[in-house]
Structure formats: C-alpha cells, structure tokens
Amino acid sequence: MGVLNLTPDSFSDGGRYTTLQAALEQARRMVAEGADLLDLGGESTRPGAEPVSAEEEKCRVLPVLEALLPLGVPLSIDTRKPEVAAEALALGAHLLNDVTGLRDERMAALAARYGVPAVVMHMPVPDPATMQQHARYTDVVGEVKAFLQAQAHQALRAGVPQVVLDPGIGFGKTLEHNLELIRRLDELVALGHPVLLGASRKRFIGTLTGVEAAAERVAGTVAAHLFGVSRGARLLRVHDVKAHREALAVWEALAQEVARG
Description:
- By secondary structure, the chain is of the alpha/beta class.
- The protein has helices at residues 20-33, 54-68, 82-91, 105-114, 140-157, 175-183, 185-189, 203-209, 218-230, 241-260; strands at 2-5, 38-41, 75-78, 95-98, 118-121, 163-166, 196-197, 235-236.
- The strands form two sheets. The chain has a six-stranded parallel beta sheet, covered by helices on one side. A two-stranded parallel ribbon has the order 7-8.
- Strand 3 (75-78), helix 3 and strand 4 form a beta-alpha-beta unit.
C-alpha cells in the first residue's frame, strides 16, 4: 500500500504532493515501482497535528482520487470524517481506512453501503492531537487485540464485507509498545482477518537507529516490515515502494527455500 499524503504538514513528506500534478506523478511512480494499492490522505494524524475541516480535506483528496481512478489501481481513502468518506466512496474509492477504528458508526455504515472493505486501526482515543497522552496499557497487545476484535465484529454485523486490522503503530504508543505489537503481531493475525502493518519512517525507527530525518529511515522501516511479514502481516503501508518490493523479493525467495528444506 503506497502512501500518498496530500497534506502540507505530514511528518514525513508533508507539502510534497499538494498540487494535482505532483500527486499524480508520485502515484504513477509508486504504481510503477510495484504498489498494489494507494492510500490517499488529506489530514495529517501525527501527534499534535492541527485538524482540518471536512471541506478542506475534500478539496485536497477528491480531485486526486478522481484523477487516479483511470490508473486501474485500487484506491484507499484515509479519513476519519464520514463526510469525506461518503464523497470518496461515491466517486469510486475501493477501501476505507479509518484511524479511529470505525468508532463513528456512520463509517461502518458507509463501507457497508458501498460494499468496500474497511481498515480498523487502533488508537487509544479518537483524537490524534492528544493520543500520546493516553499511551498507557497494562498489556498493550491484549488491549489492542480486544479493541480490534470488538470493532471488527461490529463492522461485520453492520454489513462491511471485509475488515483489515491495523495495530496503529505510533498512534498512542511508546517505543516499547510499538516493538511489542510487532513482535506479537501473530496474535492479531490469529483473529482471522488480514493484518496491515504501517511502521513506515515512524519516530520509533529514528529512536532505534539515530536517524533524525524521517525520509532517511528506509532501512529501519524495511527491517520492521519484514519482521512483521514473518509474523503474518498481509499488507504493508509504505512510503518507499521500490525498497520494499526488492526486499520482499529476496525475503520470499529465502523463505521458500526454508519451507522446502
């Protein structure tokens, strides 16, 4: 899943794809590099980010979404606002990605109405601006698992055809929380739904590697994601598609040899 941030303030590449032309060029580049689907977002959800209105978010994402539909690649709308989700799905978005975990029942209802899968992500509170203040868990994996299981069950009952689970790496989590979730990702996989891992360029990788610039955290990102794949992750949400495609090609070849041996 290639990340296409249509925002001026995202933590890694904010401001790079705010024009339609720049966004289309980046989307085509990611598809050429091997992205299976693209995730379009018009509001930064980094800690402390300023919220934007639904109208502003629609202005950022809908023209790009419409322009990308002819590419024939599945498009995901990354939003926590039902108003934005409704218009994106009406245009033809193929997947709903909600960082608040479908807490707003209108989101599940929209996914059900349009017959699209939904990504259910864990965040301790529905507000990214304050989520890090709530990074307190007795058992982070157990609590994230319980939340995702409950939200997935509710979504399926509402008619959503399929759910994808996302542990929400970096969303209201400390370094140790992030590491524990990736180490024990197989416990989320055991719930029986595809699991998405999105650790791309995140702060905990910079903390572990000493790499300050988010765009330079590629090697650490690939390492985290390959470990996640070994634990059963089915989708990777990434900024650096080419690096991941190359790493996965080698990893999968080696894994097949181990399986045969």
